[in-house]
């Protein structure tokens, strides 16, 4: 059996939330070409290739130390890879290489066209300002200046992520873990980014809270037609949210394809082990 297995979708078909395949646009929104990342003698990512299309959700799964989070932070521009290209189809300047663009341009994309949902909401929120200000800051980053309009939009997004609008002036530290994570999602989506990165967004939450957050994420991603890359060790999360799946082990992609095909008919021994471990749990 080969070390790298691919389940093919015809004509770049991507499953909709309801399971109806649609042809993907020909131009990827995000593309990784031969991306490698080294930390000293450790090779965290080894010659990774991926394409992400508008509106598509890509799940990256694997055990701790597989390289999935290192890859995510490279894709999001937090860390530059040791080698390779990361191409993004921007709205205003066409296809650009995230690796070679200047820092100011990278930060502009991170504030506007991209979002990043951290595993811990504390890493994605400002604890010293109100919930409304956390959301409003992103709007100000894209040029909003009218206080009334910013506050109204913040209220709208709090309601959209199921946070009572009366909590708009409360500090995030007074929120539950689930509410903090929903606030982080509102902060990221308020500028209507075309691409959002998610690093284990439910891992720190209780099981009952996870289910509610996953349902909310699935609805928002579908409604906004936002592309997403989600890293998770939880195959149930991947099955619920992701159209396609990449399985990583020791810095390499060992299998990829449509999520249901990978999880229902895994080809690589490592993927088979992951799936069987879940079934036996």
How much strand content do the residues show?
Answer: 25-35%
Give the strand line-up of the largest sheet: 1-13-12-6-11-10-9
Q: Regions with pLDDT < 50 over 5+ consecutive residues? A: 8-12, 16-22
* Counted beta strands: 13
Give the helix proportion (percent range): 25-40%
Give the distance, in angstroms, between the N- and C-terminal Cα atoms.
Answer: 27 Å
Count of alpha/pi helices: 9
Described by the principal axes of the CA atoms, the overall outline is: globular
Mean pLDDT across all residues, rounded? 88
How many strands, which pairing sense, and closed or not: the largest β-sheet? Answer: 7 strands, mixed
String of helices and strands? EEEEEEHEEHEHHHEHEHEEHH
- Rg over CA atoms, rounded to whole Å, is 19 Å
Fold and architecture overview:
There is one protein chain. By secondary structure, the chain is α/β, with parallel strands linked by helices. Helix content is 35%, strand content 26%. It is built from 9 helices and 13 strands. It has helices spanning 68-75, 103-111, 131-141, 147-160, 177-189, 207-224, 235-241, 259-264, 269-280, and strands at residues 5-6, 13-15, 21-23, 30-39, 42-52, 57-61, 83-90, 94-97, 114-117, 195-199, 227-232, 244-249, 252-258. It has a 7-stranded mixed beta sheet, sandwiched between helices. It has a 4-stranded antiparallel beta sheet with strand order 5-4-7-8, with helices on one face. The chain has a two-stranded antiparallel ribbon with strand order 2-3. Helix 4 (147-160) packs across helix 5 (177-189). The chain is globular, with a radius of gyration of 19 Å.
